[in-house]
Amino acid sequence: MSKRLHLERDLCFVEIIEGETDSLERQLGEFGLVDRLKELDVHVRSIEINAAGCFVVIDSQDVARLHIAARPFNLAVRMHEQCGLIVMRGDARSSMLPVLRDVISMFHRARLGIVHVSVTGPELSLLVDDDDVAAALVLMESFNRALTTTLAA
User: Fold this and answer.
1) C-beta of residue 33 within 8 angstroms of C-beta of residue 95
2) CB neighbours of residue 31 within 10 Å
3) Is 55 in contact with 44 (CB distance < 8 Å)?
4) What is the CA radius of gyration of the chain?
5) Tell me: the pLDDT tens digits for 102-131?
């Protein structure tokens, strides 16, 4: 695996689904949940809170504690367990990343699902089913080679 790619396994993607609430009430619930996760020492790998909801990536071993943290709140939890996270980072030579549209298209053609994707600065993160990690790494390595070839030209 190239230095630009990083892999983590045994992760769980969590979608927090809230009942009918106004935006302020929803935000207070989300912030309360985040505080509760910290109190219960749930290792949060990433968290995204936006108009669509609250999405969290945690270690699989923390699933039971996440359920405990969520109990006091008016919400449901949808989990996608057994995930692998592939991160492609820009390096000292270039912060170039593949075009997200091309990545999604390539995964679609290879019949590989993406559980969650995000791009933050010089970093592209793909969460995939654990069963698809090896094939997803091969695809991401091909994007890395293409970028390396482009930079060398």
Assistant:
1) no
2) 12
3) no
4) 17
5) 999 999 999 999 999 998 888 999 999 999
User: Reading across the β-sheet that carries 44-50, which strands appear in turn?
Assistant: 44-50, 53-59, 5-18, 75-89, 123-129, 116-120
Residue/partner pairs of 95-103 with CB below 8 Å, 24 or more apart: 95/121, 95/122, 96/147, 96/150, 96/151, 97/122, 97/123, 97/124, 97/147, 98/124, 98/143, 98/146, 98/147, 100/124, 102/143, 103/139, 103/140, 103/143
Q: Specify whether the CB–CB gap between 53 and 116 falls below 8 A.
A: no
Distance CA 122, CA 59 (A): 24
Instruction: Tell me the residue type at 120.
Output: T
Query: Alpha helix locations (H) across 75-120?
Result: 100-109
